[in-house]
Specification:
alpha+beta, 17% strand, 222 residues
C-alpha cells in the first residue's frame, strides 16, 4: 500500500513539473535543485548553494549589472531587475515563468545559488566585500538584497578569469522558397535503329541439305 501511495505522489509531481512550455529546462533544474540537492545536503542546502553560486561567478566574471541580468536569463535563473539602489545597498527582484513555477511547485525553493552568484559578481565589479540574501515574499516574488562594504576593499587576483563578453544569438530569417517552375519536356527525335551488317546467307537452306559425315570426310581427302 505504501508503494502504491509513493508511486502516485511521484507521478503527480512529475506531471506537475512537466506542465510548462520549457519542459526540458525546467524539469532538469527543478529535479536537481529542489529535489536532489535537498535530499543530499539537508539543512546545509542554503549555505552550500550560496557558496556554489560564488564559485560559479568566478568562472563567469561579468562587467556590469546589465550583463548580470542578461546572464541570468541565458542560464535560466529568471529575469533579474534592479529595483532600488542606495549607497551600499542593492535591491533586486527575480521574476519570470521559471520562478513562478518553482514557487508554486515547492514549499521552500532555494534561491541562495543566485544570491551567492550576485554577491561574488558585485565583489568583482566593485572590488569591495559584498554579501547577498534571497528572500521569498508571500510565495509570489523573490527579492535579493546585496550589501557592499566600501570600507573593506578586496584585491582581485592576477590570475582571475577574463570578463565574459555577452552574446545575443542572432536569428537569421529563412527566405521563403519560391515554387519551382514546371519543367517543359523537350521533344526528342526518335533514335534511329542501328544499322546491322547484312547477314551472310547460310550455305545450306535446311537441315536436310547438310552434308553427311562421310561426305565431309571425302571432301577433306580432295
Amino acid at each position: 500500500m505504501l508503494l502504491k501511495r509513493s508511486t502516485v505522489v511521484t507521478q503527480s509531481l512529475y506531471t506537475q513539473l512537466t506542465d510548462t512550455p520549457q519542459t526540458a529546462t525546467y524539469l532538469a533544474q527543478a529535479t536537481l535543485r529542489d529535489i536532489l540537492l535537498p535530499l543530499i545536503l539537508g539543512d546545509e542546502t542554503e549555505g552550500i548553494s550560496y557558496w556554489a553560486g560564488k564559485q560559479l561567478a568566478t568562472k563567469f566574471p561579468l562587467e556590469s549589472i546589465a550583463d548580470l541580468s542578461q546572464f541570468f536569463e541565458q542560464i535560466n535563473f529568471g529575469q533579474l531587475s534592479l529595483k532600488k539602489q542606495k549607497k551600499n545597498q542593492y535591491f533586486f527582484e527575480l521574476t519570470g515563468p521559471i520562478i513562478t513555477k518553482r514557487l508554486a511547485d515547492f514549499k521552500t525553493p532555494d534561491f541562495q545559488l543566485e544570491a551567492g552568484f550576485m554577491a561574488q559578481t558585485l565583489e568583482q565589479q566593485l572590488q569591495v566585500t559584498a554579501e547577498a540574501k534571497a528572500t521569498v515574499e508571500n510565495k509570489k516574488r523573490v527579492t535579493i538584497f546585496v550589501q557592499t562594504d566600501t570600507n573593506d576593499p578586496i584585491e582581485i587576483p592576477l590570475e582571475t578569469e577574463a570578463m565574459v563578453t555577452m552574446q545575443t544569438p542572432e536569428v537569421t530569417p529563412i527566405a521563403p522558397t519560391e515554387p519551382a517552375e514546371p519543367v517543359t519536356p523537350v521533344a526528342t527525335e526518335p533514335t534511329p535503329e542501328p544499322e546491322h551488317e547484312p547477314v551472310a546467307k547460310a550455305s545450306f537452306s535446311s537441315v536436310a541439305n547438310l552434308p553427311s559425315r562421310q561426305e565431309l570426310h571425302r571432301r577433306k581427302k580432295h
